[in-house]
Design goal:
Length: 705
Amino acid sequence: MRKTDRIIIKLLPFLVIASALPLPAFCLEAISQETVITGTSEKPEAPLASKRLKTSDTASLLKDIPGVTLATGGGVSSLPIIHGLGDDRLTIYVDGMCLTSACANHMNPPLSYIAPSNVSSVGVKAGVTSVSYGGDNVGGTIHVESDQPVFAKPGEGTKGSGSVSTYYRSINQSTGAAFSGAVATSNLSFGVTGSIDHAKDYKDGHGNTVTSTYYESRNLGATLALKGNTSLLTLKAGHQSIPDQGFVNQWMDMVDNDASFFNLGYKDSFSWGKLDAKAFWENTYHKMDSGVDKLAIPAVQTGMTYMPMETRGIDLGYSLKAEIPFAEKNLLRLGHEFHRFTLNDSWPPVAGSMMMSPNTFVNINDGRRDRYSLFAEWESKVSKEVTTVFGVRDELVQMNTGSVQGYNTGMMYAADAKAFNAQDHARNDNNLDITAQVKFEPASNAAYEVGFARKTRTPNLYERYAWSNSFMCSGMINWVGDGNAYVGNLDLKPETANTLSLSADLHDSARKNWELKVTPYYTYVNDYIDVNVLTLKSTGNTLQFANHDARIYGLDVSGKIGVWDNASYGSGQLSGSLGYVHGRNSDTGNSLYHMMPLNGSLSLEQRVSGWTNAVELQLVSDKTEVDALRKEPTTPGFAILNFRAAYQWKNLRVDCGITNLFDRFYYLPLGGINYDHNLANKRLTPFESVAGQGRSFNVGLTQAF
């Protein structure tokens, strides 16, 4: 009997017991420090609307959430970081699908597969994450949902709805359009969505072009839903095409990315509780090579011009989750999940090149990463003031890959390939997650939470199986944009993070006039996947993934206060946030890579007679804590002022704004290096950081119907 079958059989008694339990006449809500932002096509005035005007990158919708920062990628492919832990250290769901970057440079991260125009809600759970929110992460979870199916009211007949929108941003001549439409009865709904985004290279605050920042993205989707008395069956399908996307901090660019998916979901309520089931399949064909900007660099033209890379990745999986009220004021959550990611990464030979021919370079051959998960979570309303949640999650992660080969049998490749092929590639990890949370609400205007979590993450396929020590090849294994080369390590252990988090949430009873939330946290990561140096070079180091211990601590502060509320000037609200994170490798004493310096934001917003106006100030201090092994550059602090205004008239919304009002020049603290500049200067160090965008005039229009 296969291990998959044994795990499913173990799950069956849970569901049988669950079906026999009675349903009390109450419902509990889980403890959650989750931050949720909403915005649907039916309600264009919702909070996400103003964020969409400034970006075509779905990850950027998270940037104002306390504790969340972004590592620079392509124009639609930033990588979110939560409390200093990002990328594959987070679990990211798009409509319940757990997606994986199918690229050695992570140019197609999970959030790049959904356009901002199609996002209806974003939920971020940082640090102490309940086991029911997902496993295989040490930093937190992100849940992004598209618009939910629309149904007509009983007796209403057939109902139609939808929206169209368009925008323009001057900084990179970015243009785009999106549409959504649905037709539905009270039980059946069919909807479609589509979007296109296009941009040229942007300019920095000095008016200089930042090359390889162009992009084009096209998305199409369809939803078919059937609603019963208590049930909802949903089938979603979609396709994405990204024909071009430049990456200023990478050696290569994306020259094609085609992805398709199917997503089947079922929800229902029974006498014993609730059931949520989902199954999905997503297929990506991805290509990298030198883009148009890199090909125009004279230093590149005289050296290596082309290096095509082709990847196919498939995510598939399912989940079964049950919520079962029992006894009095107790709730049991049980679940089983399966997720498989397969990857083939090969680099075709280059005609006329001695180093890159005559064979196809096989980087990952039939790579496989399977996760089998079981979890149980108990939430209890101990008293009127105290709620507790305890959860346990067990995951079996199985990984394997086939034999590899270099471009040829020369010594540059033969020894590494032979050594890798001679080893057993199969690896099995049994990961245990434990969470405990207590929430204390002594009054209607105060809540306090304390939580502890033990979270575990198994290495990704590249961290374990990238095999070549050649700088030309290992330099392609880099999703952090630092100009270095990375080699895998078959002996890597899973990361295990122990996190303690406290939170105080003070507010008025209605959460309308004022609110202050303070969250300090501390994380110690055993076997944190950092690096050891294999070769030191002036042009970039060759590094190997290696386990070290690490510690991370920080503080999130956010709040708001009503400033005025009268008939003449409407209502005014002042809101702000402050974030600090510090991370160290406990073994070496080095700073961890991509730690965001002290940063904050302040916004004054006015709402009056259909108008929403705001002035926003973004503040970032000097970045001086850097990773010397990666040659991470320091960056000076900066302040940026933005202005935005929107007018809502019935179902028509007009947005306008100016970002970086005073056209300040600044470097992105998490932008990595400007690889194009590095190539143009024949890879001389020190590396220059990536400059941020200069002043941009933005305008958008949304019509719902």
